[in-house]
């Protein structure tokens, strides 16, 4: 008996593991054909898709319900219990089959209901087309005169449309604009040249208020005042333009020379011009002063270009230039010879300028071998000449001197030769 129960238990387990619900092989093909037939209407694809989704969900639900409801318990050795289990399995199999039948019936109903709106819409279109055809057939024929009148009206409309379009697209006629005369400067100085231009680049001639015509496009004015000019071109002339001409100042100066601070050559420059508001003094193109009058030291031999630029409030300027000749360089007024013979005349040597207390200096005297034979920074101490002067020949009695002078914050260097005469 025990062996029979074990065999029965194995068969039940095998049946449960390999269980498949009853189905028809052509069920899915039938379902697809029904969905295709329903899809010919406007609502077909949407309804078919909904039915398919519903069917799949129902099948999944049935399978889940079967799995949940079935109790997976250990097989019993009691024959009565085994008989009950087999009966329960058969009952659940019947329930699954019933679920599948309900799913198929639900899908068929959905497909049928979705095809009705499409059919109704098709019928409505047929009715509308029929009414339209009937109306066309029953309308009265149009006479030849009426057709001709309609054609003439249509032609007039087309002509009016063309005229309107041409009117809108045609460029508007504008009057030729008068060119404008411009000038490079509206306020100029007497004798200064200014340029004129016409805004459209047309060739022109200038005409002043007195009627005088100028071929040039650049003019200068010799007298002061307001000038009115127009440009005369091929088809007319421009509006007048004003140019204000200002007078120029007169630049002129004089200069003089004096010696100050130990004989330093001092040149005084005095403005003698008129009409000036500002001034600029230059020596060899270098600005030395902006005062109305000035003075400078010219210490080196040579020629100097002295210039005065005088300007007025209108910005007009005049220039005067003069050349100054300096005949010899300033060298501290140092003598180039002396006679230390004890006769009381010209017995000592020192540059005259260094006797002025305005200078601070350093002085050295050297022989021909570059040996320093005398040195001083005291203006009261002068060189008395070499010792044993009789032992020198005349050529040996030439000495060199050099000095550094500090004057008004400037360091100046000087030097030269000294001839000692016994």
Automatic annotation (TrEMBL):
Which InterPro entries does the UniProt entry name for this protein? Answer: Ig-like_fold (IPR013783), PKD_dom_sf (IPR035986)
Residue ranges, compositional bias (Basic and acidic residues): 7-31, 121-130, 144-159
**Per UniProt, what is one Pfam family of this protein?**
CHU_C
Source superkingdom: Bacteria
List compositional bias (Polar residues) regions by residue number. Answer: 74-93, 160-177
Q: Which regions are flagged for Low complexity bias?
A: 131-142
Record region (Disordered): 1-31, 74-177
Residue runs in coiled coils = none
Query: What's the protein called, per UniProt?
Result: PKD domain-containing protein
